[in-house]
Amino acid sequence: MAPMTDLVTFGETMLRLSPPRGERLETTRDLTVQAGGAESNVAVGAARLGADARWLSKLPDSPLGRRIVTELRSHGVRPDVAWADADASRVGTYYLEHGGEPRGTNVIYDRADAAITTVEPDELPTDAVAEAEWFHTTGITPALSETTAETTTALLRTAGEAGTTRSFDLNYRAKLWDPETARAAYEELFEHVDTLFVPRRDAREVLDREGGAVEIAHGLATEFGFDTVVVTRGLEGAVALHDGSVYEQDVYEAETFDAIGTGDAFVAGFVAERLRGGDLPAALRWGSATAALKRTTDGDLAVTTRAEVRDVIEGEGGIDR
Amino acid sequence: MAPMTDLVTFGETMLRLSPPRGERLETTRDLTVQAGGAESNVAVGAARLGADARWLSKLPDSPLGRRIVTELRSHGVRPDVAWADADASRVGTYYLEHGGEPRGTNVIYDRADAAITTVEPDELPTDAVAEAEWFHTTGITPALSETTAETTTALLRTAGEAGTTRSFDLNYRAKLWDPETARAAYEELFEHVDTLFVPRRDAREVLDREGGAVEIAHGLATEFGFDTVVVTRGLEGAVALHDGSVYEQDVYEAETFDAIGTGDAFVAGFVAERLRGGDLPAALRWGSATAALKRTTDGDLAVTTRAEVRDVIEGEGGIDR
Amino acid sequence: MAPMTDLVTFGETMLRLSPPRGERLETTRDLTVQAGGAESNVAVGAARLGADARWLSKLPDSPLGRRIVTELRSHGVRPDVAWADADASRVGTYYLEHGGEPRGTNVIYDRADAAITTVEPDELPTDAVAEAEWFHTTGITPALSETTAETTTALLRTAGEAGTTRSFDLNYRAKLWDPETARAAYEELFEHVDTLFVPRRDAREVLDREGGAVEIAHGLATEFGFDTVVVTRGLEGAVALHDGSVYEQDVYEAETFDAIGTGDAFVAGFVAERLRGGDLPAALRWGSATAALKRTTDGDLAVTTRAEVRDVIEGEGGIDR
Amino acid sequence: MAPMTDLVTFGETMLRLSPPRGERLETTRDLTVQAGGAESNVAVGAARLGADARWLSKLPDSPLGRRIVTELRSHGVRPDVAWADADASRVGTYYLEHGGEPRGTNVIYDRADAAITTVEPDELPTDAVAEAEWFHTTGITPALSETTAETTTALLRTAGEAGTTRSFDLNYRAKLWDPETARAAYEELFEHVDTLFVPRRDAREVLDREGGAVEIAHGLATEFGFDTVVVTRGLEGAVALHDGSVYEQDVYEAETFDAIGTGDAFVAGFVAERLRGGDLPAALRWGSATAALKRTTDGDLAVTTRAEVRDVIEGEGGIDR
Amino acid sequence: MAPMTDLVTFGETMLRLSPPRGERLETTRDLTVQAGGAESNVAVGAARLGADARWLSKLPDSPLGRRIVTELRSHGVRPDVAWADADASRVGTYYLEHGGEPRGTNVIYDRADAAITTVEPDELPTDAVAEAEWFHTTGITPALSETTAETTTALLRTAGEAGTTRSFDLNYRAKLWDPETARAAYEELFEHVDTLFVPRRDAREVLDREGGAVEIAHGLATEFGFDTVVVTRGLEGAVALHDGSVYEQDVYEAETFDAIGTGDAFVAGFVAERLRGGDLPAALRWGSATAALKRTTDGDLAVTTRAEVRDVIEGEGGIDR
Amino acid sequence: MAPMTDLVTFGETMLRLSPPRGERLETTRDLTVQAGGAESNVAVGAARLGADARWLSKLPDSPLGRRIVTELRSHGVRPDVAWADADASRVGTYYLEHGGEPRGTNVIYDRADAAITTVEPDELPTDAVAEAEWFHTTGITPALSETTAETTTALLRTAGEAGTTRSFDLNYRAKLWDPETARAAYEELFEHVDTLFVPRRDAREVLDREGGAVEIAHGLATEFGFDTVVVTRGLEGAVALHDGSVYEQDVYEAETFDAIGTGDAFVAGFVAERLRGGDLPAALRWGSATAALKRTTDGDLAVTTRAEVRDVIEGEGGIDR
Lengths: 321, 321, 321, 321, 321, 321
What we know:
- Chains A, B, C, D, E, F: Keywords: Kinase, Transferase.
- Chains A, B, C, D, E, F: Pfam families: PfkB (PF00294).
- Chains A, B, C, D, E, F: It comes from Halorubrum distributum JCM 9100.
- Chains A, B, C, D, E, F: One of its GO terms (molecular function) is kinase activity.
- The structure is a homohexamer.
- Chain A is built from 11 helices and 13 strands.
- Helices cover 37% and strands 23% of the residues of chain A.
- Chain A is α/β, with parallel strands linked by helices.
- The first copy, chain A, has helices spanning 38-48, 63-74, 126-131, 141-144, 146-162, 179-190, 200-205, 213-224, 262-275, 280-295, 306-313, and strands at 5-10, 14-18, 30-36, 53-60, 78-84, 93-97, 106-110, 132-138, 165-169, 195-199, 228-232, 238-242, 245-249.
- The first copy, chain A, has one domain (9-314): 3-Layer(aba) Sandwich (UDP-N-acetylmuramoyl-L-alanine:D-glutamate ligase).
- In chain A, helix 1 crosses helix 9.
- The longest helix of chain A is centred in the middle third of the chain and has 17 residues, at 146-162.
- In chain A, the strands form 2 sheets. The first copy, chain A, has a 9-stranded mixed sheet with strand order 5-4-1-8-9-10-11-12-13, with helices on both faces. In chain A, strands 3-2-6-7 form a 4-stranded mixed sheet.
- Chains in contact: A-B, A-C, A-D, A-E, B-C, B-E, B-F, C-D, C-F, D-E, D-F, E-F.
- The interface between D and E is medium-sized, with 31 and 31 residues.
């Protein structure tokens, strides 16, 4: 029998290209390259916190495609990649320019027609999904193409049939689709989801929900039958509804070096702790602490350790003498 | 007939050499090179906001002189340079060491005998000044040498005769001359100036003015017949007097990456908006917003866009999803 | 009457992204960004050698599109860009990994669906072409899309009607089309071309020519009525046929830092000298010397000066005491 | 049943710290950090060429220990590390200063008392060795401490009992022991070795062999019963003796960027090809080509691909159009 | 007669290796190398403030040992180093990863068996100690080895006999010894100390003192007969007891770029001012201002000047016009 | 009595600013800063080879002036600097762009009116010259200003009166004066010189000498009474005439990373060996070997060691196992 995997995620990972602090994309000569993608961010974060994590995707069989795999693998994630013809496919790319008040951080996506937009279930090791304890994907994946939407549904269905816990982070991207289209797609997927992560803002603007986080969570859980709904509220922290109980979690204050990937780090910490048997409040703490640590480092990834997360939760830090 | 230019500026541009953050000039091994000079800063800022801008100066015909032209041109400014013999002239240089409380930012000028100190009107396309809508220079230029002082006067006179709006930013530099000498020189030039930009501190310490910004503006306008006086007050914002009316403008809060060039960015935004037909309050908003954006980026230049300035004025920002 | 332009080029310019020497794309964390494209390389090279040069293209109205314009403008080229909607278009990109025997230099194109693929003549200042002395484009442009092929024909036609000299560099790219398709397209364009630049290898493999460079030149000139044919032969130098005379030109030896852009530098030097009234042998010398200088510097562009080219031709160099 | 592994290697991996080219350790301010160690170099090289490779070692459970694992994992190697107490152990380190005639490349080891010096067999997954097709270690490992010498013997014995092919690269290090001590230790291990890699110089100076490479190979094979002996001769290429036949292999010429790790790359290519069923001549070609590619890139590791090695063997290269 | 030295310090200096801001040791590829050690930090700080300072230590006679000397010498310190055999000794090293809330700054020492652990008095120029006005060492040195503890005692004794003022900074390092062992060692040394610097936290946790800073100072002075006791309290400033009088000193606020070395900078400023004849309050001001300036720059060292310290004390700063 | 110094040199040291390899000054954004000056290059080279070396000069009392002192001191040289008013003086600067055939290395001096041009003997510790064994200066110093010419004469006279050996390196700089003026100045100084270093080219073009190196040496020695004449001939090596005997020295082949400072390294090695009692042939070997090592490293300085020079002379090198 194949070994059980803790976590499988599915989605696009891009090359993230960013100029040095204080420089503009329009004039820079230097770009830092890193791998970034919501689902692989979660896989990396969880793997670093002890989960055995795999990540499914499709990439060109080129140095650029392998560049992504190389970085993810370094953090202990096992990539399961459908390799596309290098000459007939491309890697999604995004450019990130760090801002500073009153200039916003600027993200420019160049992801159209990335290799993943053609990924079909039979190119992927769907067994891995069935054998995993947890499957995670986000609302970005179905937005990439009709094919990825169908593959997302197929994988969620596979997971459901196998009893794999399925989580879904709404992650609405206004550059990929409009709220109405997105909402329709989300709602079709919701029946296959056990745990929903949703920013309060997206719940309001995309899912047309009203009221506070608790009210939103109740509404969604009732309507779609989620086992767990986690509503994130930026600096106000998160609220979770699970088995009829409501749990609140504050954010841990952080000196932000790079905010990108904070939400994925939250999911990573949450899922890693659930996989180790932690209860909801513990999972929220792990999510929140992992997110805080993520903010202190460069890049999409939560490059941290169990010990560091534990120190944050227990309120320890500072310089070691 | 030659095409109308929006803006012509005249002055020295130097090579700005700065070590990495946290490093001292005394021990550094790395310097970043950028072009910096009050008048070309204004030309670049205005050009980026849509103005057709030219910049008049004198430089050695060497890689170092061309280094400056190369950078200015990249932002759309048209440099009109009197090229001096490379072996018999030099480029002005300034070293900038970023500070941090309680250590001040340190600027070391090495600009004596720069090529511009010998510039005479007949080396410059004075037609350009006559054909422009707006001519701008600063109180640094006449401080460089007697020759630059005379050329400044000549160009202002040319502008005045042609009906070109003339603005002047006091920009007192204690390392170039003492307050008394400066004051005498300024006052001779004032008769050729329509719009005066003056920091409140300089108004007090160099022009011997007393009272608040409004009082200073009234006094100067009355005495020298300025069309517009803009008094800047650092973090307290600016005050403008125009046609007998007083306008106040707050600063837009900014996370400062590099404060050098803030004042020039203000002038650039102000002039660019005036050139597009904006009224005084609009010009003040554009000046203030451009200045705030400048503070978030490295270097003397306001590397920004009309859309970004508009977003600041309209209070929008943040990460684009 | 609008001022006469020396040179107009038309084509795609990409962002060139390259890791440091000795590093692989597959593992690098740092990329240098530069602008690169055959036709803008020629415009930059010629502008630096004194030509008044414009470059026509289409780019997204985004920091990435402006990044390209910024760099070209810095060298004195005037870009005439049709700006595409930033959200609905992309910039062509290419990744360059420097090799070293026995590992080849690796170029990965990510240029599909770049903004230029939709460029139509009425988006471009065709007047500029008509008013120019010289118009240059390459065999890459018609390979990008049917639309660019048609626009190329239209611009060549406009140039021809206006008496503008038209040059064309074959520049066959195997990743864009196959030899047969390319040949057919080239041959349709040839009737609109005065000066043809063609590598001997492409003449053989794509145009099905046989024999040596001189024989190839004669054959092409006879068949298509070119005024001038320049056949380049790598390290063996170039051969030109003009008015029935044959001219040979050796390469100037160079310590190669970066070979990309050598052919474009050759064209730039050749055209710049022709525009100044130089005869064929002089133009070949300028082309060859500019190409040698290009090889010594990083990037696609021939960042050099008239004085440096002259020194190479006259055999001077070395350290200045 | 556990899945079969292709290759297991065992040995120390250090942090390699090197200043930029042209700078001296004595004055540098910047160091590049990379992972380097003969046995993990082989594992990485082989993994990149398609082998399923594991690497056994011992490291402190600290960011520095994990730094090494992170890099090896990125290339697809599965590290099996005995984690030592972070406060009571250290990572071996080596400083590498690139030379240039007449200044030699300078290597400074700071590896005394590294965590691996205490590694015992029961800390390692010896099953992995037994289940692998091939086990590789080098003459560095037994030189580190008595404990590593004993563990080396134990692992070779385990491999031998399980029928795993055992290879050994002599890799004499004068800074670790003297020739006599080394020779005695080697000779005790030789009975457990199937394939010996030995530089001709070491064969002469350490193993006291005389004559040419073929004679040396025969002598060693006869005396110690090796299945295969590969004698490397620097730029003169390698000679292999196998089943009584002698095979010669030239080096592929290379533009050397970094020579460190060349020998390990040779072993990696050789073993990877043997594991895929290649015969001796093929393995020598793969070894030699992988070594040549290694020389073109920075760092200890042969960051290459099967396609690139194949291109070298088939004599293809150069810029892709 | 040999010339009088102002200050002699004795202790270990390490290579400090730190990744860029926002990067983790576990994944970084770049390290900055700097010299760092409590006693040489004091020597450098004092030398830069005008003292003639020497520093005694032991290092391997290798590029790494010389790397340290090179940097210290650049600041005007005269190193008196006992050179150890390069092949049989090592340089202490420490890795520094800058933190950011909630992630602490991480220091990893790799200093076991550094060359200094074998230093004996007769390897050092003990005359220098006798001829100096002031001798300084810290509680780190005796913790390194029994030999360094004995040498520390010997040097303090030599200083005492010669009438040289002896200062001692407690500098407890939990990674080197436990509080009880440390306390016993400290108390043996205290009889040879005139001026004690002690953080309030160490006084409590290691010396078992109770109460506030003043009470601690009185207790220590009474029990051990110190001439001066300076108790530092982090952001609450310092308290000094001298000749029965108590002096308080606030910290000067600082924008912290790098906090490492702040305490040593305080001692450097204090000692430098005492050596110039300043009284206790002046010395406290100089210590505090030097410490504030240190925080604004990268590295262990207080790279500052007398003029800058004076400006801080006098409350001047900001950008020089 | 003050301690005897081995070597005192006198001359200008500049900030050397150079862009990365392959980049042009005209477009670079990064400059490396290093200290460079013929006489301090000699002092550093000799100090590193064991001489007790001092260097006399004049610099502004600013971070830029101290930048130079900081670097020289790091190599063990004792700078004796006359500090000029920071606001009224400047540091000489030179820009260095590395070339590559056929593009020459480009040096741009910006040294006019550097602080040293006003240096007078009474600002310098002339005692140091009198107490030294050897005094060295070059033909650059008297070319800087009349004052430096007079001071050079005064120092040479002081040295002569004290019996200090005086060496002079012709070092003709065409950018500072013409051959006739230079020749006249040199010839006045020659009576104060014991050892003359002169490139064959300068001997011919500036001193109007004819014939080969030996003939030149004889002629100069006869006419001016030099004790030793060393004529350097680039890659053909050096010839020395001493006490009527002629000595030849080949160059040691070197992989050149940076050729600047090669001649100064030669002088440094020569003088260092003479100071240790070596005979002429030994001094020539040391000079030549030091020069070869210099070529392998970045910057003006010969950052090497006695052991490395010895290895070159003895023909040893390569990677240390």
